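Colleagues,

Please find the record for the two-part complex below.
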Amino acid sequence: MRRGLLVRPGAWAMATLLAGAAAQAQKNTADGIAEYRKMLEDGNPADLFEAKGEALWKQKRGPKNASLESCDLGKGPGVVKGAFVELPRYFADTAKVQDLESRLVSCMQALQGFDGAAIAGTPFGRGEQDNVTALATYVAAASRGLRFSLPQGHPEERRLYEVGKRVFYFRGGPYDFSCASCHGEDGKRIRLQDLPNLTKNPGDGVGFAAWPAYRVSNGQMWGMQLRLNDCYRQQRFPYPGFGSEVTVALGVYMGVNAKGAESIAPAIKR
Amino acid sequence: MADPMRIRAQAQGDKAVVRVLMSHEMETGQRKDSAGKTIPAWFIQEVTASLNGSPVLTAQWGTAVSKNPFMQFTIRGAKAGDKVSVSWVDNRGDKRTDEATVA
């Protein structure tokens, strides 16, 4: 946790933010947070990661000195637009259901010659893992405004949905928590944050439709993999592996439930 | 080598609104790493902006400015097609300059 405000270029901006804070006290908390997000939206630093991801997508890199431009994200080689709102999905070449981030790692391994397992084992925000997040931000941004419609045609995709559902309701850990403890009904909060009900479509730009997102409080860009990793930390579960079946299954479960929700990713969070 | 800035400049009547996103760590020098060692301060010290080559803004920044800062300002008399350029220099002497055209 560092500084609370994103912007302090001078006295003028400070005054604006303070006036905003005073006005917020009159309203309820959710409105206040929504207003805060609105103010930050215009200067979302996720744009910086999006630009970085776009450059990485086109740049020739890795042991094979190749770009990712022929990477198949589910809509054919090189098609980026619209891919995000149909992931996770089944890929025949890896014979697995993959989410955006694990698919990107597969492409980096197949096309560029990177060691996929080494990337999966790298802590978030370091080395190539940082590049995966930037790439995911770029791919997600290309589908901004589109509506989620995950395919459920392949038996593996339907199986993963059932796995995801079980994982979502699975209680354990020292707090006897499950995902459903917080995200299983409407109107729940953690501290002052409203929590989306992920057992159904929580609405446009909420829950699954809002990540990757830039977190103002720590200045980090988070993909869905890190979001889930941190959910498990908050539940005091062991950390799930990067791109593991559990995390992909949860992605399928949330993504299928969010059918019809508009994607606003990359979003900005407090 | 610093990452590029994102500059958007929009004409509004006889003014132009310029919005800049900079990519910078902005370390305060107050934080410690996992080994307990202080992370040295690293921040943007001077920001300048110019319109068609003549300076319109100079700012001195410090550690109180957030990571990946966002800055917005208005230039009077700027019109579509004008060139807005923004530069920063940090306390390590790193520099970055980017340019945008008023739309």
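The interface with chain A takes residues 3-4, 6, 19, 21, 23, 28, 31, 47, 59, 61, 64-73 of chain B (CB under 8 Å).

Comments are welcome before we finalize the supplementary table.
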